[in-house]
Design brief:
single chain; alpha/beta; 2-enoyl-CoA Hydratase, Chain A, domain 1; eight-stranded mixed β-sheet; 8 strands; globular; peptidase activity
């Protein structure tokens, strides 16, 4: 959504609202938007990325993290309500990270991966390969979380290898763990804004 009365050179900030699952289509569109902002609005000094997501595909989340980190304009990520892996990867990509409200939460759960092959048949070799793949995802996830927080490797292992479903982190804990830098007082108004959402969300 662009304000037609605003010149490209006068845009110093852009807002992006992401509400939906983390899948390859949504992430491709999000990264296309970020590239478009960087090319079209050369004087934009801030991109505000508002996120609410129940998670999704771990590969798509990792791709989003790497793509958002490469943005020429610095990105501030804001948790609108609740963010679940792989949505946390998007949030962690922000140079500055905030929670929009005191009631916002971050949810971390054990890393999982669904194979599209032989869902009912597991051979010893496949089990070994799946374990290697899961371990790769775990190490990648730990690297991302530790890059945007002071959560220790042991704490993350307790969650990733836990029998419990998830760890829920509120804003007080998020501040303590340096996941967030502060609380956003309101949603930023910008002359240009974009929206990414899932129709079946």
């Amino acid at each position: 959504m662009n304000n037609q009365d605003v010149s490209l050179d006068s845009v110093d900030a852009v807002k992006v609202v992401y509400t939906g699952s983390v899948d390859h289509a949504n992430i491709a569109y999000l990264l296309e938007i970020i590239d478009q902002i960087n090319i079209r609005y050369e004087n934009a000094k801030h991109i505000y990325l508002y996120i609410e997501s129940l998670g999704g595909n771990i590969d798509a989340g990792i791709i989003a993290y790497r793509g958002l980190r490469a943005s020429a304009s610095p990105i501030t990520t804001i948790n609108l309500s609740n963010i679940v892996p792989a949505g946390n990867y998007l949030f962690c990509a922000g140079k500055c990270r905030e929670a929009a409200f005191q009631t916002a939460h971050f949810i971390i759960h054990p890393v999982s991966w669904a194979s599209s092959e032989d869902k009912e048949t597991i051979t010893p070799s496949k089990a070994i390969n799946y374990t290697k793949l899961l371990n790769t995802y775990i190490e990648e996830s730990k690297s991302i979380y530790q890059d945007c927080s002071n959560i220790s490797s042991d704490q993350l292992d307790n969650t990733f290898y836990s029998k419990a479903n998830c760890t829920i982190i509120d804003t007080t804990e998020a501040k303590k763990d340096h996941i967030i830098d502060g609380i956003a007082k309101k949603m930023i108004t910008t002359p240009v804004s974009y929206y990414v959402y899932s129709t079946d969300y």
